[in-house]
Amino acid sequence: MPTVIITGSAGLIGSESVHFFAHCGFNIVGIDNDMRSFFFGESASTLWNRDSLKNRYGDHYHHYDVDIRARDCVEKIFQEYSSDIALIIHTAAQPSHDWAAQDPHTDFTINANGTLVLLEAARQYCPQAVFIFTSTNKVYGDTPNCLPLEELETRWEIEPSHKYVTGIDESMNIDSSKHSLFGVSKVAADLLVQEYGKYFGMKTVSFRGGCLTGPLHSGAQLHGFLAYLMKCTITSEPYTIFGYQGKQVRDNIHSHDLVNAFYHFYQNPRCGEIYNIGGSRYSNCSMLEAITMCESIAGKKLQYSYTNNNRDGDHIWYISSVRKFQSHYPKWQYQYNIKNILEEIYTAQVSRNYPLAYNLNKMAVFANKTR
């Protein structure tokens, strides 16, 4: 039975990877020490998800409460499973550019040094394993904000004649822009992953994601756009829109679609590869459009305010081009669009946090259908 090591295994993409590869028959080794609660507070803790994984998969899921910066601990895990390791999925990170400015040392050591620890452990103990890294579109800094954009009624849009009209591809320059400190630490990790592929011939890849989302997301104000927006809509918690008239555009990819892309790469890996990955033109929305959809799904109004001060390094418009990945892996396809994603997030949040109200609502719906 092949083994997959998944860092950040209780987070959004990590836990989706656990589910996916457990069903593929892998032995799962999860590494996660709930740093998300340290970054964003107790409400963002992923312990509930960790416990769910343990209960669901039993002996097929082995959890290690380990910091990825702890070189000795990480190397001990890799040494224990060594040649049985077929795949490493590295999702653990400090994920917020706002938070990074508060504590640059912690941000950089987690994102950059932690990635180096994992790459070197893989090189020493399982050099033939596939190494998949969840990078970010923030490696491009604020360069996307220099694109020619038009203000429409509910969103910003790129000029129809521009080469990036179907999405930003990997040709965009990563130099001479404001990245945020988070973007810089992820650039360092991204380049390390590429270099271990090109220099040592390891099967490595950086997936430069747009907004990664789904029902397993523990959304917080500083990270987890759709999950946090839906949470505020459901709970009537005040929400703040930061700049750009609320018309900033993001593409959003469901965690399952992303992990399915991982699986396609694993089946036919390459060395030192990079891919932009996101919802592309298939699944995207502006902030105002997302609010309208959340209100419609939840059946209540969001309590929000607006400030003209946008976040430093924030993108006005970002839609990923996935053409390169699809050209290499033409059998990969999307299963979720933005409406499907928000409906799943709503159902998951209500059933997890308000189980009695959720079950009563399901019973009422069923009763109405049978009348």
UniProtKB/TrEMBL annotation:
* PANTHER family in the cross-refs: DTDP-D-GLUCOSE 4,6-DEHYDRATASE-RELATED
- InterPro entries linked: Epimerase_deHydtase, NAD(P)-bd_dom_sf
At the top level, the lineage of the source is: Bacteria
Please state every residue range assigned to the domain named NAD-dependent epimerase/dehydratase. Answer: 4-278
Protein name listed in UniProt:
NAD-dependent epimerase/dehydratase family protein
Assigned protein family: Belongs to the NAD(P)-dependent epimerase/dehydratase family.
